[in-house]
Every structure is written in structure tokens, then in C-alpha cells.
Amino acid sequence: MLDGKPCILIVDDEVKITKALKDFFNARGYRTFEAFDGGEALDVFYEHSTKIDLLLLDVMMPVADGFSVLKEIRRDSNVPAVMLTARAEEYDQIAGFRHGADDYVPKPFSTSLLLARVEAVLKRAGKGQMCEIEIGPMRISLPRRSVLIDEKRVELTPKEFDLLYCLVANRNRALTREQILNEVWGYAFEGDARTVDTHIKQLRGKLEPVGEYIKTIHRVGYGFEADV
């Protein structure tokens, strides 16, 4: 913990991704440290090991890869670890788990999905923030990725759930379509803003009467407006 809030060490040699993840988690009440290669990751971890609650480790990095970093850290610490990689082969996932990883997220990923996975890992470790959100008659469970309205399950596609969580996590804030695309579809997504509009329309329809909380912000994008 740092300042009473969960602290994440983000390690990725792609500066753009590391900075984006730092901003994303900071905006959601987390504290973060950064490193850009395996050697720096070990230096930062051992300097701040008592504060760090979770590792976000890219697999393919210079100096030492993510597996090597985690193997070294596991000699002294059981801090939860989520591996990030552009390689999605089953062999790599098995290797990550054998080295002590708690979860494995292939790139490109939506930041909303990554947040849900991080919170689930932290909860299992007894360090998590709230993993259920209640807004009016709606209850969202992050570990189960389920939505109930008046105790009745709402069937959402994976992207619809990620979109809802993105809006709720940023409630009472205006989000541009580009921000939503980045958070839900990932930075490598090549579609356009109409994808957001289409999914918003579908989501509103499925969430009635809570769908009215999703507001269109003129010339900006969308927001989820709720006082609870």
C-alpha cells in the first residue's frame, strides 16, 4: 500500500503503454511505480517491495524478460503478478503460471478488462478494492463479470460488459469516443467511433431502466451519470 491505496509496479518497455496504464490506474485510486526493462523492474521492486501490492509484467523486455523477473522476485516474495504479453500461445501462459504468475493478459487488451482482472487478483490476495458495484437497482460483479438489475441477470456480451464497466468506473465524467475505444477495445483497435455508438445503443436497450443513466455528451462522447 502507498498512501493507504493499492500500489502497482507497471513494467513494460513500450513507454506509451506504461504511461497510459499509469494514468489509467492513478485515475482509479491506485498508486503506481514504473519500470521499462527487467533490470530496472528488479531495482524498483526491491527498493519499494513493502509498498507494492501487485506486479504488471510484460513478458518480452530487454535486459531480463518478465519470466526471469518474476522468477527472481519469487525467491523472496509472493506479491501477486499479472503477465502482459503480445504472445498468446498456450506454452507462454503455462510458463507464466509455472513461474508464479497469478493471471495472464494477452495484448492488445482493453484497460477495463485488465482492471477487472487486477482487482480480482488483489481480492484473492486480500488486498483488493471493492469488486461489486451497486447503482440503484443494478449490481455489477467484477469477478463474475455479471450484471443484475432488480436481481435479474442481464445478458451482456464481453464487450458490452467492458463498456459498461468503463462508463461506471468513470461515472459522472465525460469520456470521448477515443477514450472509450482505447479503454474497451485497446490501443491497437483499428475501427472507428461508430463502433462505440452501436454498442452504446445496444447497452442502453439491455439495461432498462438503468440505461437512461448513460448520457450522450454533445460534441464529446458519453458519460454515466448517477449520484449513488
Q: What's the layout of helices and strands?
A:
Blueprint: E1 7-11, H1 15-27, E2 31-35, H2 38-48, E3 54-58, H3 66-73, E4 81-85, H4 90-98, E5 103-106, H5 111-124, E6 132-135, E7 138-141, E8 146-149, E9 152-153, H6 158-169, E10 175-176, H7 177-185, H8 194-206, E11 214-217, E12 221-224
Helix pairs in contact: 2-3, 6-7, 6-8
Brief descriptors of the model:
single chain, 228 residues, alpha/beta, Rossmann fold, Arc Repressor Mutant, subunit A, 2 domains, 5-stranded parallel β-sheet, 4-stranded antiparallel β-sheet, 8 helices, 12 strands, 21% strand
Summarize the main sheet.
5 strands, parallel
Class per helix and strand makeup:
alpha/beta
The CATH superfamily name of the largest domain is Response regulator
CATH fold naming of the largest domain:
Rossmann fold
User: Any idea what the CATH architecture of the largest domain is?
Assistant: 3-Layer(aba) Sandwich
Overall helicity: 25-40%
Beta-strand level of the residues, as a percent range? 15-25%
Quaternary arrangement of the chains shown?
single chain
Shape: globular
Task: Report the top-level CATH class of the largest domain.
Answer: Alpha Beta
Uncertain ranges: none
For the biggest β-sheet, the strand order reads 2-1-3-4-5
Distance between the termini: 27 Å
* Number of separate domains: 2
Topology, number of strands: 12
Please work out how many helical segments DSSP would assign.
Answer: 8
Rg for CA atoms: 18 Å
